[in-house]
Amino acid sequence: MFSNLEFFLVEAFRSFQRSALISMVTMVTITVSLTIFGLFLLSVINLGNMVGTVSSKLDLSAYTSKDISLEDAGAIQVRISKIPGVEKIEYTSKAEAWKKFKEDFSSKLSLDEAIRDNPLPHTFAVQIRTPDLLPIVAKQISAMEVIDEVRYSGRLIDQIKSLVSAVRVGGLALIVLLFLATLLIVVNTIRLTVLARETDIYIMKLVGATNNFVKWPFIIEGIFIGVLGGVFSFLILKFSYDSVISRLALALPFLPTVTDQGLLSAIYAVMIFGGMGLGMLGGYISVSKVLKNEEEGKC
Amino acid sequence: MIELISATKTYPNGIEVLFEVNLNIGKEEFVFLVGPSGAGKTTLLKLLYREEVPTSGKVIVDRVNVAELDANQVPYLRRNIGVIFQDFKLLPKRTVYENVAFALRVMGAPRSTIRRKAMQALELVGMLKRANSFPDELSGGEKQRACIARAIVNNPPILLADEPTGNLDPTTSWDILQLLDKINKRNTTVLVATHNKSIVDEMKKRVVELESGRVVRDQQLGMYHVQQS
C-alpha cells in the first residue's frame, strides 16, 4: 500500500502539472465560491452578533406623570423588581429629568422662558434579563395603576430578529446552492483533466488496474487543488475581514463586530476543509463518471 | 486455454460482428486470426480480455467464462492477458522503462520486483538500450517492442496481438513476428489478428479465418489464403 500511495501522489502531481491551466481554473473556482461562502457566513454571524448586542442593551421605560413622592417611587421600584425577568431598575425623578434636559439643551434654548412647568414624567428604566420576556414584563408594568405609559422598542427587535432568521434560512439555501454549483463546476473542470488522461486510464485498465487504483490519483489531485483553493480563500477573507473590521472600528465605533479569534478560526477552518471536500468530491465524481462511461461503452 | 462456444456479438445498432463462433486454442499454441477488415477479428480479441461482452455464447479463458465475470474481477483477468496493438498505445510522456513498469505498478507490485521484471522484459524484446527514450523518439518497430515488453512484463500465459505489424515495414514486421514466436516458445499462448499475408504464409502456423463474423477456415500450418490444389 505504501508504494501505491507514493505512486498515487506522483501521478496526482503529474496530472496537476500536465493540465496546469485547468487545475488553475478549478482552483480559482473553488477560491471564489469559498470566498463568497465565507463572506456570507461572516455577514450572518456579524448580523446575529449585532442583534444579540442590541437586544441585550434594550430595556423598557415606564413613565408616570402622577405626583409621587420619593417613597412612592421606592415602593414602585420594589413592586417592579418582583416581576420575574426584571434585572435592574433605575429611577429618574421628574425634577432630575428636567434638570438633565435643561443641561443638555440649555445652549440651544432658553427653556425657562418658554416652559415654566416641568413637562417631563417620572421615569423607571427597567432592564430585562432576556429580550423574549420584554413584552410580558411590559404588560405587567403597564397594568399597574400608577404607571401612565410603558415604552420599549420591541417591534424593532422583532423586525431585526425576523430579518436575521430570514438571512439564516435564505443563507442556508444559498450555501447549499453555492456548494452544488461549485461542485458542478469543479466536477466538470476536473473531468477535463480526467478526459485529457483517458488514454492513461484506458491503458491502466487494460493492464489490470482496479477502478479504485485508477481513481486515487484523481481524488488526491482534487484534494490538492481544493486545499489550495481553500487556503487562498482563507487568505482573501482573513485580510479583507481584518481590514474592514479595523476601518469599521474607527468609523462606527459603536457597531458591535465579531472579533472572537476562536470563532473566526473555526470559519477559516471550514473554508480550508470545505475546499478539500469540494476537490475530493469533484475528483471522485468526475473520474467515476469517466470510468462508468468507459465501461458502458464497452458492454 | 481459450475457448469460444457459440459466441455471438451484436452491437446495439443491430450490426452483427460475430456469429456463433466456435474456437478452441490450446495452451502454448500460436494462432493467426485472419480475414478482411470488419470480419470481427478485433471484436473476437476484445471478448477475450473482456473489453466486450458477447451477446450470447461462452468465452472461456483459462477455465473461466469471462462473459459472466464480475466487473470487479476483470482487472485480475487482464493481468493474465497481455495485449498489443497496431497503434501501440504507449503513454507519450513516459519513457519506455516507465511504460513497462507502469503495468506492474498498477498491479501494486513492490518496487524491487518492478525494476527486475521490467528490465527482463526490455531485455527480451531487445530494448534495454532504449529504456530511457520517450515513445516519440522511437521507430515504429521499437514502439511495438516496447508495447510487447509491457504486455509480457507480468509473464501472462496469454498474449493477444491486434494487427501488430499494421504500421510497420516488412522487415520490421518480420522481426516483430520472430519476437512473438520467441515469446510463444516461452510457454505463452499467442493469438495474432492480422491481414499481413506474407507473414502468415511464412510462419506456417495455425490459421483461423473469419469472414463476416463467422469462422470459415481453421487450418494447421495454414496460409493466408486457401491453397488451391
What structural keywords apply?
heterodimer; A: 299 residues; alpha+beta; Alpha-Beta Plaits; 2 domains; 4 strands; 8% strand; B: 229 residues; alpha/beta; 32% helix
How would you characterize this protein structure?
Chain A is of the alpha+beta class. Chain A has helices at residues 2-18, 20-57, 70-82, 94-105, 111-114, 134-142, 154-196, 198-206, 211-251, 261-298; strands spanning 59-64, 86-92, 122-128, 149-151. Chain A folds into 2 domains: 2-54 and 157-298, no CATH class; 59-152, Alpha-Beta Plaits (2-Layer Sandwich). Chain A has a 4-stranded antiparallel beta sheet. In chain A, helix 2 (20-57) packs antiparallel against helix 7, helix 2 (20-57) runs antiparallel to helix 10 and helix 9 (211-251) runs antiparallel to helix 10 (261-298). The mean pLDDT of chain A is 81. Chain B has 229 residues and is an alpha/beta fold. Chain B contains 7 helices and 10 strands. In chain B, the strands form 2 sheets. Chain B has a 6-stranded mixed beta sheet with strand order 6-7-8-3-9-10, sandwiched between helices. Chain B is globular, with a radius of gyration of 17 Å. The model of chain B has no long low-confidence stretch (mean pLDDT 92). The A-B interface holds A 1, 3-4, 7, 14, 18, 199-200, 202-211, 213, 295, 298-299 and B 46, 49, 51-53, 71-72, 75-79, 83, 89, 91, 93, 102-103, 105-108, 110-111, 150, 154.
Layout: helices, strands, pairs:
The complex is a heterodimer of chains A (299) and B (229).
Chain A: H1 2-18, H2 20-57, E1 59-64, H3 70-82, E2 86-92, H4 94-105, H5 111-114, E3 122-128, H6 134-142, E4 149-151, H7 154-196, H8 198-206, H9 211-251, H10 261-298
Antiparallel strand pairs in A: 1-3, 1-4, 2-3
Helix pairs in contact in A: 1-9, 2-7, 2-9, 2-10, 7-10, 9-10
Chain B: E1 2-10, E2 16-25, E3 30-34, H1 41-48, E4 56-61, E5 64-65, H2 74-78, E6 81-85, H3 96-105, H4 111-124, H5 140-152, E7 158-162, H6 170-185, E8 189-193, H7 197-203, E9 206-211, E10 214-219
Parallel strand pairs in B: 3-8, 3-9, 6-7, 7-8
Antiparallel strand pairs in B: 1-2, 1-4, 4-5, 9-10
Helix pairs in contact in B: 3-4, 3-5, 4-5, 5-6
